[in-house]
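seq as requested:
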Amino acid sequence: MFPSAASGWQAETSPLKILISRATYPSQPEPNYALNLEVAEYIKEKKGNTPREAAMTIVQLVNHRNPHVAMLALSLLDTLVQSCGYPFHLQIATKEFLNELVRRFPERPPPFPGPVMSRILELIHTWKETICQESRFKEDLGNIRDMHRLLTFKGYRFRDIPRPQPAATTANLKTADELEQEDREAQEAKLQELIRRGTPRDLAQAQELMKILAGANPDAKPDYRSQALTELNKLESKVILLNEMLDNVDTERGERFAAGDVYDQVASILKNARPKIQGWISNAESDDPESLDTFLQINDQINTVLNRYEAFKKGDFTAARNPIPAELAGSSKQNDLSLIDFDDSDQSANAS
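struct tokens:
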């Protein structure tokens, strides 16, 4: 545990601990999110044992005798869980970390938990409701669910948390290369953790994982392209849903849109996905031409339905019902007809 004296804080020689000390320094009146993100970037850059070192350092500060330091540490912990991905999630799901996190919890819950205890309960409940359900590697986070269940059994109560905004669902929208890279980073993090534990069972798992990382069995490699297309199909279903909703807007009764309504929620998902899709298009021209047409198609669909949505919001119902400009629609139709009739005209000319 860190000493409270300033000299003790500055005596830490580890670069990571220095960053954590700055982010949780007791003279700060409130969390400094810029410093928190600086710690997150350092962890993502260094990888290796850094996620574990960060998790165990922070959990010691959570038990600091100064409640203000503990609250700053919990704020930093929340930022790292949101920013550092599976390698950090794996560490907060260890029994060692979780037991240390609740070390000061009495056997029977107090009638009025203090701020630190309430915040810890809130974080555990949040992890159980988010990463334990939505992570691609949620099977490795079972200890968090077990701790939540144990605390509930002992009588601790968790406040309901608001569900994440729909825009968060675009977090799973990744290209095949991004999915493969994410898997590899997760496997490397898990391999390091298995070796650290060092039990015979863990070492046997580590050996199998090393074979996977070495590509010893290429037939067992996941179909990342198929996984990426599955997520794109989910996004396309949102396009279809918003189009159908806009088709059924009751303009005669003066139906209007409001911030946070179902129209806004679905449109927000598409708006958040659009920059990612457009970035893929730029990269696909040179790196992944096979997927370029797919990316262009879904980008056009998103642009069209969002143009409809914006037109409805402005009250321009004519444009909303037909988002394709008339001149383009007319030329497209004319081109279609000429292509369809081309063979017939050619045959009739030959016949004459």
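Confidence is low (pLDDT under 50) at residues 1-12, 325-349.
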